[in-house]
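Much of the work behind modern protein science is quiet bookkeeping, done one molecule at a time. The fold becomes a row of whole numbers, each drawn from a learned catalogue of backbone shapes. The protein below has been through that process, and both of its lines are reproduced in full.
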Amino acid sequence: MDGVRMTADATYIPTISALKVKIFADGADKAGMLEMASKRHIAGLTTNPTLMRKAGISDYRAFAKDILSAIKDKPLSFEVFCDDFVEMERQANEIASWGANVHVKIPVTNTAAEPAYALIRRLAKAGVKQNVTALMTLEQVQAVHEALGNGPASYISVFAGRIADTGRDPLPMMTEAVRLMKPTPNQELIWASPRELLNIFQADQIGCHIITVTNDVLKKLELVGKDLGQYSLETVSMFYNDAKAAGYRL
């Protein structure tokens, strides 16, 4: 099985070295982005207006160009931030001009629920590398897949984590999306908005091409393959030491 090694007792222990899925770091903190970009196991980076706002970024263009001046050897995705498709197209063309490693994030619809498929098709024909984002249904995957066609290298981002938040298992849909996209090697499927480190191994096992991971989840990579007996002991010790430090009495 991809991403795991078997022990004598037939249990599975995950290993980072066996992973085939590419890991993209998701964030908007410059220091964090540069740190992630320096790591060999990080294949690309993504951001979005929400993350940038939380990071206190006020000048979108200046921030993007600053990051691009430092990261030139890995793909970066920057998102348009308007609701009108004409303006969205203008922004997409400008963002695409910022670097050869730029993918333009296009939302699958605008806020009026109008599909962006026609725009996606035009941008693909114009040679714009896209990262079509916020997909949550297989019907959307099919439509975006067709709109991108045999254009330049592009990504389809399915928000599997948000699907899971609704109580639905995203694995069947993601598995079907991998199958659907198989005939078009110029398109890669992204498992977006993961909620836990396990999602990296789930994405790997179904053949998903990429998973975007936030820094808080990436920090857990050091736990991969950790001995569970030792982890149990460390957890017990944490509870004991915290209670002792708090001076609790009964």
Notes: Residues 1-10 have pLDDT under 50 and may be disordered.
